[in-house]
Every structure is written in C-alpha cells, then in structure tokens.
Amino acid sequence: MRVFITGGTGLIGSAVVAELLAAGHAVTALARSDASAEKATAAGADVVRGGLTDLDVLRTGAEQADGVVHLAFSNDFSSPEALARAVAEEGAALAALGDALVGSDRPLVTVSGTPWVAGRASTEEDPLPTDGPVGGRSVSVQRALGLASRGVRSSAIRLPRTVHNEGDGGFAGLVTQIARRTGVAGYPGDGTQRWPAVHALDAAVLFRLALEKAPAGTAWHAVADEGDAVGDITAVIGRRLGIPSESVPEENFGPLGPIFATDQPSSSAHTRAALGWQPTHPGLLEDLEKIEP
C-alpha cells in the first residue's frame, strides 16, 4: 500500500520507513526541512514538504494514501509552556489526518505512551492517563481511536518511555544527554522505579503489523523490556561515560521530573499473542553498552 508518514526521519520513524519499504509498501514522508527531505529520499521514500502545522498538506497526504502512520512530535521539553504547545500542535495535526480518512476504511496508526498502573505492569486494556504534562496526547489518541465508528481503521501503538537504537533514544537518551552536561548520571528518588523499553527496529515491525492488520479502535504495546530499574540504567550510562551514578533532585529533570520518578512497568503479552509480534533486537541495558565515552 501507499503509506503517508509523519515523523519519518526520526529515530523511530526511520526504522518504520525502512520496515515498510522492506515489506513492499511505498512510502511518502512529510519533511519539514531540507535535511529531513534528503534523509527520507535517501531511504527510498517520496517526500511531501511541510510540518505538523500545515494542516492542508496533512489532509492531502492522507487523502492520497492507502494508509497513514503518524509519529511526528516536536519533542520540546524545555518548559511546561513549550511542551503544552507541542501537545496542542500534535492534536490538531492528528485530527486533520483522521478527518481526511473518515468513511474510507483505511488504516491510521498513531502513537502514545504506555500508561502506568500502581503496583503492576500496565496492559493494553488499561486506559491512558489524560492528566499530567503530556495528558493531552492521550486525549488526541483516544479521539483518533474513536474514529473506528466513522469508517477509519484506527489503531495506536503505545511506546515505552525509552525507544532505543545504538545506545540512544527515549528517556535513557535524555538521561545520557543530561549526564554529559552535568557530569553525573542522575536519577530521581532511589532508582528502583522501572521503565519499559523497546528497540526501535522491533517497534517498527509492530507499526507495520498494525498498519496491515490491526482491527479498528485497538491499542497495542510495543514493549520488549517490561521494566528496567532506573538505577541500573544510569549505572551503565555512568560507567560508559566515566562519571558517577547517583540520586539527584527530581527538579533537575524539568517538566519530565514527575514522569522520570514514576514506576511504570508495562506488559505486551496481548500484543505478542494477537499480532504475532516478537522482539528480537538487544534490550536496553545491552544497547546502552554502545554509548560512546
């Protein structure tokens, strides 16, 4: 099928584009910059120029495609205000994509995070939280899944907080960036809180499977590691960078501090059984060994 993708040149998107092309699909990628356009073209995708705020471009891209994968997000965590703008921008973009597909029975695969549930690993049946600094993203995703009743085969891939490749990406990647800047591989609290994780190449396979066969209105967990202790994650980061790993104030992580401090293991048992998804790439702790000192 001809697939229109947003965010097709990021860490996750690049893996998804490669997976789709390898499976015989054609890909048209949204590209905001010359660099992104060149990267998408080099990967073998066609290119449409525009960003998430170009709603007419998004609608046209969706109308001309056999299916849509939405991954783009500005990832501006510099302040609560910037994060709120990013969430609102994505919500409008996802609404435009969904509206363009109403009545077509074509797939729309979007993305969210895995929810956290006190005392246990979250499952695909657990609802997404709509409060907190990124709660608005959950609202947008639920609205997209609701399009199942309007003739859209919508589905959502719930990604863990760390999607990694070659030792970079996600929350672990952010912690590594902060560690390089501050000289401490820090974690909030006692470090026993757990973060789920998945390799980007494994996540890409799940996006393809959802595009090809996920029923309308369904959510799936792209979780390979159910939960690595944050203290174990920062221990590897600290060792690779030659710096100490220790507890630091939650405030050091800005608006993401409360999320960093939360114990949030997650299960993908249903996803594996229903879609036949089986992660095969290195887990997070092994992949972090590739961090360059």
UniProtKB/TrEMBL annotation:
It comes from the Bacteria. CDD domains: SDR_a7. Residues 3-216 form the NAD-dependent epimerase/dehydratase domain. This is SDR family oxidoreductase. It comes from Streptomyces endophyticus.
